[in-house]
Amino acid sequence: MASHIVGYPRMGPKRELKFALESFWDKKSSAEDLQKVAADLRSAIWKQMADAGIKYIPSNTFSYYDQVLDATSMLGAVPPRYGWNGGEIRFDTYFSMARGNASVPAMEMTKWFDTNYHFIVPELGPDVNFSYASHKAVDEYKEAKSHGVDTVPVLVGPVSYLLLSKPAKGVEKTFSLLSLLPKILPIYKEVISELKAAGASWIQFDEPTLVLDLDSHQLQAFTAAYADLESALSGLNVLIETYFADLTTEAYKTLVGLKGVTAYGLDLVRGTQTIDLVKAGFPEGKYLFAGVVDGRNIWANDLASSLSTLQQLEDIVGKDKLVVSTSCSLLHTAVDLVNETKLDDEIKSWLAFAAQKVVEVNALAKALAGQKDEAFFAANAAAQASRKSSPRVTNEAVQKAAAALKGSDHRRATNVSARLDAQQKKLNLPVLPTTTIGSFPQTLELRRVRREFKANKISEDNYIKAIKEEIKKIVDLQEELDIDVLVHGEPERNDMVEYFGEQLSGFAFTVNGWVQSYGSRCVKPPIIYGDVSRPKPMTVFWSSTAQSMTQRPMKGMLTGPVTILNWSFVRNDQPRFETCYQIALAIKDEVEDLEKAGINVIQIDEAALREGLPLRNSEHAFYLKWAVHSFRITNCGVQDTTQIHTHMCYSNFNDIIHSIIDMDADVITIENSRSDEKLLSVFREGVKYGAGIGPGVYDIHSPRIPSTEEIADRINKMLAVLETNILWVNPDCGLKTRKYAEVKPALNNMVAAAKLLRTQLASAK
Predict the structure, then answer these.
(1) Domain boundaries, the chain
(2) Which residue in the list 4, 118, 645, 701 is annotated as catalytic?
(3) Which of 222, 269, 437, 464 lies in the 20 to 30 Å Cα band around 379?
(4) Cα separation, 5 vs 624, whole angstroms
(5) Would the annotation count 620 as a binding residue?
């Protein structure tokens, strides 16, 4: 019985690639140094899978930034602003597209389906001259072969690539991206030809858009694309991989009807109903790559249950045609549980990271083949039973409080217009008030202080003294820049979710459980294993300390319940909304304590609310109802004069704008600049927004410093569709990933732009 892994984490068990990338970007190391680190990581990954007994090992899933940008490079679809003149795409062009450079901005970045991973959105139009410009897929296949590993090269499928793209600036929004299929398929054929010549016997096309709600025209594009590729693919085994949700009946019919295709990869963890489609009919002689091991969470697989599912499938597709696989790439989970030295043994026994999931896949494949490892299965069954019965998972008081939420929508008593009037009387802010999103740069010295405090190398008194000094610097800088509503900069926090999770019950934490978010940015999601509550205040001390340093309003900074949920590894033994309501009650306690401490502006970030939106339209309403309700629970008890902010970033918000309005926040700051001000179009189309709103005026994920004129131009575009009295001026997101050499001039230009516009507005009256 064969086994397969869809994809594997790239950063390395100790984030080796992250540090190599940042060293290269900072010009502290060479391209050769970066390539050496990457090659060593790839070699270790291939060896690990081969040693574990995996038959179908992927290649070309490694990336220096993201796999969609790799596909853009392969197709030579470089926007003209980057000055690329043909030939093999090198690091300078590749990273300029991803991060921008001194003269041009980066391409848009958005969330990869409903995950916290991001991809660089291709910018396409009728005039793009596609060409085979990156041989990475072939090079990595040959590289693996030189290590004695015959891999399955993985490509982003041609139809999904186009469906995930957007019309370039200046191209009509109605332009059919799928009309470009005839232009990109010849390049796919070149890649296929080279892979065949190099000795590849299998090829994997990732076509995850098949799980979306597609119309007949879009589904027909898959049929047309693979019919066109059929002769080029002759002699190869072809796997079409889908993941993240169920397939519709129409999509399933399209998938199994594709010409030249040997095998179909299905997510049977999130696609729980897809198995019914397989039972209703599966094409004879084809392979089913059954994704029964969860690639998006860290819980150990219930091996007995998975084996039962596989045995049912074996009866349908045939013993020699069933391949055990992960539900999706393991990119979305942590790397190796072996590196976790501080998790207690009970919780550790409940978990499986990427390395352990590879072992699970192979154990299931061997069990199906009649070589069941009885001891391994028995240990797994014991861990499953332990998790179900452990008293640390359940808190009856929390469950009772969450159950009592039913029957109320938890809205503030006064409408937002009246609240804004009351808040303005108290805060006395200028027109176009300026603020930032929360975090300020995390310097090496600051990281050292936090690290030494965690390691008990400095005392709590010395730690508090150092953090207070950092807050004072940040407050003084904002006053010097003349920002209106200040933040304390979050110097005590390494990560916005981890910080809160460490202070809430029901959470566990890893030492090296890093997961890539984008580029070199890694996050360490907390593990929610039990019922959630807040034992004591979490941020009141630091917010009060910061407020005592200034007469200007100081924002209390919290992470919202939906974002904590979506950016954690969440327990899978109860519905997600029940866990979210528990978190909401904990944050509500914190909001009310901040208000009592004299904090008049409180930001409750919901950066990931859109990210959690299910992929299928039929499931949107239920998710948005409980997600928005959870946010309202957090602040329903505050006074009218307390201003509630929220923040959202890097997603397509236009389709949920009415739910955003329904959150009933007083002010929302929201990503706007990197997505070509896509957000503003919703207001041009007539949506009325009465609360305060701050569409980001510059992209903080790029080192580029925007000019005063550029920012003023952005603000003017906003003023064309939004009322002056509700518009705020702020960056797209927090500043923790930037350097002060970038932050100071950028914020200075932002404030100067706001003042320039205030003067112009005053003179126009």
Answers:
(1) 2-60+135-389, 414-701+722-737
(2) 701
(3) 269
(4) 33
(5) no
Q: Burial of 658 by CB count in 10 Å (0-12 exposed, 13-18 middle, 19+ buried)?
A: exposed
List the one residue out of 326, 272, 6 whose CA is nearest residue 151.
6
| Residue 649, marked binder | yes
Q: 733: annotated binding-site residue?
A: yes
Contact 604, 553 (CB under 8 A): no
Residue 676 has pLDDT above 70, yes or no: no
Cβ neighbors of 277 (< 8 A, separation 6 or more) are 247, 249, 252
Q: Is position 605 annotated in a ligand binding site?
A: yes
How far apart, in Å, are the Cα atoms of 743 and each of 35, 287, 563, 703, 749? Answer: 30, 53, 25, 9, 10
DSSP helix/strand/coil, 688: coil
Instruction: List the structure tokens of 594.
Output: 């901040």
DSSP letter string, 608-620: TTTTTS-SSGGGH
Max CA distance (Å), the chain: 83
Instruction: Give the pTM.
Output: 0.91
Tokens of 541: 């001390």
Tens digit of each residue's pLDDT (9 = 90 or more) over 184-234: 999 999 999 999 999 999 999 999 999 999 999 999 999 999 999 999 999
By DSSP bridging, strand 322-326 and strand 505-508 are unpaired
Query: Bridge-partner residues for 302, per DSSP?
Result: none
Whether 364 and 42 have beta carbons less than 8 Å apart is answered as: no
Judge whether 328 is annotated as a binding position: no
Q: What is the mean pLDDT of residues 476-504?
A: 92
List the CATH code of the domain at 2-60+135-389.
3.20.20.210
Q: What is the spatial distance between Cα 21 and Cα 698, in angstroms, rounded to a whole number?
A: 24
CB-based burial of residue 487 (10 Å sphere; 0-12 exposed, 13-18 middle, 19+ buried)?
buried
CB 668 within 8 A of CB 631: no
Q: Which of 614, 693, 697 is nearest to 655 (CA)?
A: 614
- Please, which residues have CB within 8 angstroms of residue 89's CB and are 6 or more apart in sequence? 73, 76, 78, 133, 134
Helix (H) or strand (E) segment spanning residue 646: strand 643-648
| Range 556-561 average pLDDT | 96
- Mode of pairing for the β-strands spanning 123-124 and 118-120: unpaired
**387 Cβ contact partners less than 8 Å away, ≥ 6 residues apart:** 350, 393, 529, 573
Which residue do the tokens 């391949």 mark? 323
Which run of H or of E encompasses 401? helix 396-403
Q: What is the DSSP string of 410-462?
A: ---SS-HHHHHHHHHHHH-PPSS-BB--SB----HHHHHHHHHHHTTSS-HHH
Whole-number Cα distances in Å, 692 to 330, 415, 555, 646, 706: 40, 13, 15, 10, 24
- Same CATH fold, 414-701+722-737 and 2-60+135-389? yes
Buried b (16+ CB within 10 A) or exposed e, 513-536: bbbbbbbbebbbbbbbbbbbbbee
- With tokens 């709590």, the residue in question is 460
Say which CATH topology domain 414-701+722-737 has: TIM Barrel (3.20.20)
439 is in an annotated binding site: yes
Look up residue 81 and give its amino acid. Answer: R
CB-CB contact of 140 with 59 (8 Å):
yes
Q: Return d(Cα 41, Cα 590) in angstroms, integer.
A: 43
User: Is 645 noted as a catalytic residue in this protein?
Assistant: no
Helix-strand-coil split of the chain, %, nearest 5: 45, 15, 40
636 marked among binding-site residues: no
345 alpha-carbon distance from chain centroid: 29
* pLDDT tens digits along 590-629: 999 999 999 999 999 998 898 899 999 999 999 999 999 9
Q: Is 116 annotated as a binding residue?
A: yes
DSSP 241-295: E--SSPPPHHHHHHHHT-TT--EEEEESSS-TTHHHHHHH---TT-EEEEEEE-S
